[in-house]
Write a structure and sequence with these properties.
By secondary structure, the protein is an alpha/beta fold. The protein has eleven helices and 26 strands. The protein has helices at residues 13-26, 47-51, 122-125, 132-151, 155-161, 171-190, 216-229, 321-338, 374-388, 393-405, 427-431, and strands at 4-9, 30-36, 40-42, 61-63, 73-76, 78-83, 88-92, 98-102, 105-108, 112-114, 163-167, 200-205, 232-235, 239-243, 246-249, 254-256, 259-262, 266-268, 279-280, 283-285, 291-292, 295-300, 305-306, 355-357, 363-365, 372-373. The chain has a six-stranded mixed sheet with strand order 5-2-1-9-22-21, covered by helices on one side. A four-stranded parallel sheet has the order 13-12-11-17. Strands 6-7-8 form a three-stranded antiparallel sheet, with no helix packed on it. Helix 4 runs antiparallel to helix 5, helix 4 packs parallel to helix 6 and helix 6 runs parallel beside helix 7 (216-229).
Length: 437
């Protein structure tokens, strides 16, 4: 008896959960194939802690061939074409070879990439923050700038090296600035700087407040912690131009820096736009069951999908890990139902709250709508991450304990070079953007 093949494209929060749920739900009756460029699931929320030296890189990666995915066949490759009529997915493997997978059901969970804006110099001089290579590069880069500044003779150059500009005050940007400030303070204790120079972190955003998508009380808590630590928070401010020597702000001020960290948000993977299917602000339009209209064998979830928000008619769920994780499970259930296993269910989201790690014992959280701050929020946030991670919990907890008891190791690993982590992940699209903004 021939088994139905389900191909899941992408192993982010949505894809990983879809593959795991399918493997458990249908057993040996369904062949689950997972197509992904790497052999691991990346737990993105803890990436700022990797960049700040709190966690070792492997702590935030979970093997795709172990645990709940042992019955899933992993194919290493980057999807570059989907033929709905032939029911095939074309891909390129890590060594440049082309391949093709046929499917009976398809789950598109390709995720997102850096959101680029037509600002001169940003693509060339900014560092993104979407994956493990960027986190490792940023960690080395920050250490290098502090070490060079500690031995430099030119005061202006030392000041530029110790100035770090983060653009985007959402989850990622806020956590990068918070963790980065603590990291550089620990570095200068080992590498003292000349008189009058201290690490200077700037957090910029065009929004009126940090964490603009969250409750104002959480936003206020995060803003207060950042400012108390010395982070220069500038709302209603953006970058007008980036150069190798610094950034020009839209206020007219030029900030000398060697570090521009781009955290302005994400956009759906460019593969979505090539499918020829209806889109909603760049995302693949799906129904409440996560199915693609007119294609009963195709489902989509996570950042690549515009999923109707049943609690807010006419709106779509935001691109967050919490939604992606749950959508992956719903997509898997509905795929199984389409093959005769169970019944399909609509995607309904009940907000359990949010947690933002601000480094050390500080955090801003509102579990079940209860706003928390300080050490209590810090404990809740770390507990939430441990509960959410599909693996490595003991190792992550051990790293946290070691970080609290021992000084961080501040050595450059040199594993990732700047040319291997370009911000521009889709240059043809960027080239079509107007240059005058």
């Amino acid at each position: 008896m021939t088994r139905s093949r389900v191909v899941v494209v992408g192993a982010g929060f949505a894809g990983y959960q879809a593959a795991r749920t399918l493997a458990r739900r249908a057993g040996d009756d369904i062949e689950v194939v997972l197509l992904n460029p790497t052999d691991y699931f990346l737990y993105l929320p803890l990436l700022p802690q990797v960049a700040a030296g709190v966690l070792e890189p492997r702590r935030v990666t979970v093997s795709l061939t172990a645990g709940g995915l042992r019955k899933v066949r992993l194919v290493l490759g980057e999807a570059d074409a989907v033929d709905f009529d032939r029911r095939t997915v074309g891909y390129t493997d890590p060594e440049g070879q082309h391949g093709e997978l046929s499917y009976d059901r398809l789950v598109l969970a390709v995720g997102s990439v850096n959101k680029l804006l037509p600002i001169p110099g940003v693509a060339e001089h900014a560092t993104g923050f979407r994956g493990l290579p960027e986190a490792l590069y940023l960690r080395d880069h920050v250490i290098r700038q502090i070490e060079l500044a500690s031995t430099g003779s030119d005061a202006e150059e030392c000041s530029a090296r110790t100035t770090f500009v983060v653009v985007g005050a959402g989850y990622t940007g806020t956590e990068v600035a918070a963790q980065g400030q603590l990291f550089t303070e620990s570095l200068v204790r080992r590498h003292p700087l000349r008189q009058g120079i201290r690490p200077h972190w700037l957090l910029l955003d065009v929004a009126p407040r940090v964490l603009p998508g969250l409750d104002e009380r959480l936003s206020s808590t995060a803003d207060s912690v950042l400012r108390q630590r010395g982070v220069d928070v500038r709302m209603g401010t953006s970058v007008k131009e980036a150069t190798s020597g610094g950034v020009l702000l839209d206020t007219g001020e030029f900030v000398p820096t060697r570090s521009l960290i781009w955290c302005v948000g994400v956009r759906p993977d460019p593969l979505v736009a090539s499918l020829g299917a209806p889109l909603e602000r760049g995302r693949l339009l799906v129904d409440q069951f996560l199915g693609v209209p007119g294609r009963p064998e195709v489902f989509a979830c996570g950042d690549a999908a515009a999923v109707p928000d049943l609690e807010r008619p006419g709106e779509y769920t935001p691109m967050t890990a919490q939604h992606a994780w749950r959508q992956g499970k719903t997509a898997a259930r509905n795929v199984a139902a389409s093959l005769g296993f169970g019944t399909r269910t609509p995607y309904e989201h009940h907000d359990l709250g949010f947690a933002v790690d601000l480094g050390g014992v500080k955090a801003a959280a509102n579990p079940l709508g209860v706003p928390l701050s300080g050490p209590v929020a810090g404990a809740v946030t770390r507990g939430y991450h441990l509960a959410s991670m599909p693996g490595n919990r003991v190792r992550v907890a051990a790293d946290w304990l070691l970080d609290a008891a021992l000084p961080r190791q501040s050595v450059q690993l040199g594993l990732v070079r700047s040319w291997s982590v370009p911000l521009d992940t889709a240059s043809p699209e960027l080239a079509r953007l107007p240059k005058d903004g």
